[in-house]
């Protein structure tokens, strides 16, 4: 864990900002806070509408990518047990049918009620609304090649863009939180609805795939519909490309004609980023803002007045120093600093209790620390020109690395949406012997 010694009061923030760092949080930023009393009267009605909302499962694109972000997320990566491609196809068909039913607020399978058999659905979502549930599926590199073996005859169909992520400077990855042959992300505005859905999909994988790791997450958008804040207290998602612009999404998120069976799909990178909140919370406000490159109160770029104001990367102060420091997160992650590269961030905060760490801040103390941070989720048309390009710079230059540790990582190809009567990822298997 990187450490910050605050015992040298003469050390200036500017000099400290000039130090090279090891890791990066691609913490982007998602509005503004502050509810008024009159708005509180509408909150129960708005909450009821959200809980009863239904997001369609079938479509050109998978749900849960450009869908308005729900408040709760469960992400699960699976390792395949089976040696037969037919089993993989059968599982994807079962998952497709179940995901469509679950998104409508139904049970994963039609229920029968014999007393001498286990129920076909656990029933934990009985009486609950759909809560805008989405289920997003992904295919990891292991589906195509695992330990050098082409298990399912799919190696020749592995997309070029589905690369193995490089080891970034400062990564401290834990194998148990990395990789996977298949992935499922379930998002909903009700945590019990989300967990019920994942449980049922896991049950349908019995004998074919085993869950490898799972991560829960949450976000709490303000009552006024503005940008949510991450656990560092800053607004998260401000510079995201607009999901309302089909032209922008086609450029940044959706795979084009070059993708073959992946056309209209997207590539997903997830990173589990532990934040040293104890360290961060003892850091002075002015330094926090220079680390991020934005004001904490309203999310505006340094030197500007409003959250939506563009970053002025050329502005200097009266001493000739950049108003937004050279190694501030907002600068280094900006498209202008990365040859126009952009990604769609859909991150969630996480809190997994506490864990023991031999090193902690201050450096002479040891013991339990919060195991909490950011579950970074990013969709893009090509990770080579998206996340990988951006994060190589962040991993070596971002001063935010003083507060963060990347401990989990995975990449998945999320195929296009399924049409009724077909199944998720059907294009991958077309023309192959069953």
From TrEMBL:
Cofactor(s) demanded = heme b
A cellular component term, taken from the record's GO annotations: cell envelope
- Keyword Iron among UniProt keywords: yes
Biological processes per GO annotation = iron import into cell
Which GO molecular function terms does the record list?
ferrochelatase activity; heme binding; metal ion binding; peroxidase activity
UniProt keyword Oxidoreductase, yes or no? yes
Give UniProt keywords alphabetically.
Heme, Iron, Lyase, Metal-binding, Oxidoreductase, Periplasm, Peroxidase, Signal
Q: Which residues bind heme b?
A: 329, 345
What broad class of enzyme is this?
Answer: oxidoreductase
Q: Which catalysed reactions does the entry list for this protein?
A: heme b + 2 H(+) = protoporphyrin IX + Fe(2+)
Domain Dyp-type peroxidase C-terminal, which positions? 227-418
Q: What does this gene product do? A: Involved in the recovery of exogenous heme iron. Extracts iron from heme while preserving the protoporphyrin ring intact.
Report the NCBIfam families cross-referenced here.
Answer: Dyp_perox_fam, tat_substr_1
Q: What name goes with this protein? A: Deferrochelatase
Q: Which species is listed as the source?
A: Pseudomonas batumici
